[in-house]
Design a protein that fits this description.
It is a single chain. By secondary structure, the chain is mainly alpha-helical. The protein has 18 helices and no strands.
Length: about 475
Amino acid sequence: MDATKENEKIIGVPIPEEGSKEFEKMNRMAKKAIPLILLIFTFGILEQQAFGMIFVNIGQQLGATNLAPLITSIPGIILGIVCVVYGALGDFVSLKKMTLFGVIIFVLGSIIGFGFGPSSIWAVVIARVLQSAGGQVAGSVFLVLVSKYIAKENRVIYYGIFVAVFRFSAALGVVAAGYITKIDWRWLFAVPIISVLFIPSLAKNLPDERAEGANIDWIGFILIGAFAGAMTMFFTDMNAFWAISSVVTLVLFIVYINKAKDPFITPAFFKNPAFVATMVVIFVGYFFSYTLNAGVNAIGLDVFGLDSAQVSNLLVWSILLAAVLGFVCGPVVKKIGRSAAIIMALLTMGLGLIAVAFAIPHGSIAALAVAPCLYYYGTSFFYSPIVDTATLTVTPEESGRVLGANDLIQAITGSVGVAIFGQMMSAGVMSGGSIAGTEAGAASTYANVFLIGGVIVLSALVIFILTKKMIYSRSRKDGE
């Protein structure tokens, strides 16, 4: 089938050609909307990180310690589902309407949490679910805006800013959580309410186009959402029900997209070797992403006898380093190229995890403050070029679906990794000793877990090196 016939089959909001007057108009509008979108995204990440730190405190205060993990686990499941749905919807529906809907849900959750949270843990859970579902719109819309309405040569800069904002928000959430417990945690819910003030400007500057004649594939979204939810639940609470549910929903999704007339994502995506190879690199590269902070916290508690607040004060500097680097990674990636940036990022991420293992015998500052900087340095230079590479493996009209797939894979691989490594750490496996020079016991367990994590990340580097020529030769814009 020739290129023309293939393009006729694509369903998505038409994207004006770069350099045209229409593109320049949309580019100006996007640049006006992006700062407010990023501010809402900041609130969402701050809430996620802060409540992830203090959910135990909230459970104790409300007399429901056994239910406290639901404050993070259920919103986490919702987040994994909406990531892929919002990204895909960005190809079809009005970004303005989607954003306004998300902001309203986000603010509503915040109001419920502030007003009713202190009375019931279920009010806190419901509030956090609404915050997660609404706040994620900002992150997804930002990525869709950049992938469609920002010039190709400047996208890596915006992706880098996105990473920087994420890291600053995470660091702010970690710090805020420690201090807000001394006042009243309900005030955390109050912060995002000011997002309602941004609605007039967003309504004016966000694109309002939708794909004419396109029907939203709600069945497809429900199936992929059910699969994401089942997978997340399985690795949160491993049992046969969630395992079977994951397999069943995946099989149903595969059968559906092969039989449906206009599925939101077609089998052609999975027959695109450049897209598949990029997704594999993302899956393996982010496998330890959710484990790092938990692992560092465990080392601080069990090896050095620190409390979580002391660990946070040490770890936060590496997160801030990643945030600062996020602002400069775009120009660096433009200069050295996507391929070189991805190689550098995966190399430093893998070596950073190995460095944590070898730093344990040298004290808490070396292991918890210095060594993690290397890993976070790498993450600053990984997200931007790998996401840009992923979007170039498809047409502009399909970029939202790729971004949704990227978010989903990151959520799933992080959950898989933290479940596996978390069990290894809690079970005290490989405690007899380590090549890192740690003493037998907990120190060796953590060192060996970090060594394995480092090897896994470095294997992503090998996969990328072996496939990068194929990936970029099949991209919309040649060049690495």
